[in-house]
Amino acid sequence: SESQSGTSTSTPALTVDLKKGLIDNTAAYLARESVMAFARVNHAAIKAAYDSAKHRVFVLDFNGTIIIKEPPGKYLKREILGTSGNKPQPHVVEALTQLCA
């Protein structure tokens, strides 16, 4: 912007700081929401329902359900979304194997 004296003053550092703050605050917000939205299940109730069901359907989401959740904002600077190639933990693979048996 121009001041009354006709000289130009700019604040690119302020703009960069504001952008960084926005990204940091957004990532922090997403992390908090992720933790707060996670509900623990009653394993006994799930097992009883599974055992009594005649038909079963499993709907799994790879990003946090069977592999480690990617950090919020990991792909903000990339054009594609996806996972880092993490594999499910051995106990998750074992549980899925038993469910499919």
UniProtKB/TrEMBL annotation:
Protein name: Uncharacterized protein
Organism annotation: Cyclophora tenuis (Marine diatom)
Origin: domain of life: Eukaryota
